[in-house]
Specification:
Elements (H helix, E strand, L loop, with lengths): L1 H14 L5 E4 L4 E3 L9 E7 L2 E7 L4 E5 L7 E4 L4 E4 L8 E9 L6 E3 L3 E12 L4 E5 L4 E4 L1 E5 L3 E5 L5 E3 L2 E4 L8 E8 L4 E11 L6
The structure holds 2-acetamido-2-deoxy-beta-D-glucopyranose (3 copies).
The site of one 2-acetamido-2-deoxy-beta-D-glucopyranose has 4 residues, from loops.
Length: 207
């Protein structure tokens, strides 16, 4: 009978695992250890297969910390909440606490897994804020974007038309090419933009 019940319970635990938590680089995240604690236990806060931090209740002490999290992790309060400061992109993963009852051999209780994703907002840089070209000349503007995950980059022309990609090439500039060009970046977690003003010299000769 129990042989059939236990896999079912394990399946329920899988389904109850939470959705992804998105956090900005540098911010703080905490995870709750929602299990019942035995009287003496060893607690491992896990990220996948990695032991992030280990706590021994008998000593009321941290006994190990992963080098990936040195100086940035702590165990907070009676519920043994995991706190991570100064989040890094590489901190992403599946976190859960694993509690071993030291009075009972092989008795281990895991909390539900919570998935962490760490992002940065786009920052946009352009080499010029104004650029002068002679009529008939060619112009190339390259928009440099840093973000995680990567961004979709769009150039908006003075007439409102848009082109995708970080590099904008204009051939045979005319007076109609003049005005503000805007580079925008969007990675789903934030947007960034910068402007460059194009001046076309001698652009009215034909009129
Ligand atoms: C530290 O993090 C890296 C990248 O996520 C991982 O490959 C490595 O296994 C981690 N270290 C330990 C001790 O798990
Ligand atoms: C450049 O634009 C001008 C004005 O529209 C036009 O007369 C000329 O033929 C164009 N030159 C080239 C090489 O496309
Ligand atoms: C980037 O562009 C692709 C293709 O058009 C689209 O599927 C995706 O949702 C866009 N991402 C963002 C963050 O706007």
């Amino acid at each position: 009978m129990w042989k059939f019940v236990l896999p079912f319970v394990a399946l329920l635990a899988t389904f109850s695992d939470g959705q992804t938590i998105n956090k900005e680089v540098g911010s703080f995240q905490q995870f709750e250890c929602d299990v019942n604690f035995p009287s003496t236990y060893l607690l491992n806060w896990m990220r996948g297969d990695e032991i992030v931090i280990r706590y021994l209740s008998a000593n009321d002490a941290i006994t190990a910390t992963s080098a990936n999290f040195t100086g940035r992790v702590s165990i907070i309060g009676a519920q043994r909440t995991l706190g991570i400061t100064s989040l890094r992109i590489t901190d992403a993963g599946q976190f859960f606490c694993s509690v071993h009852d030291l009075a009972t051999v092989n008795d281990e209780t895991n909390s539900a897994r919570q998935t962490l994703f760490v992002y940065t907002r786009p920052t946009v840089t352009l080499p010029y804020s104004e650029y002068v070209v002679d009529a008939g000349g060619d112009v190339t503007f390259t928009c440099t974007v840093t973000s995680y995950p990567s961004s979709n980059v769009t150039w908006e022309h003075p007439d409102g038309t848009r082109s995708t990609g970080d590099v904008l090439r204009l051939r045979n500039a005319t007076s109609q090419s003049q005005g503000q060009y805007r580079c925008s970046a969007d990675n789903g977690f934030g947007t960034g933009m910068q402007y460059v003003n194009l001046v076309v010299r001698g652009g009215n000769i034909s009129s």
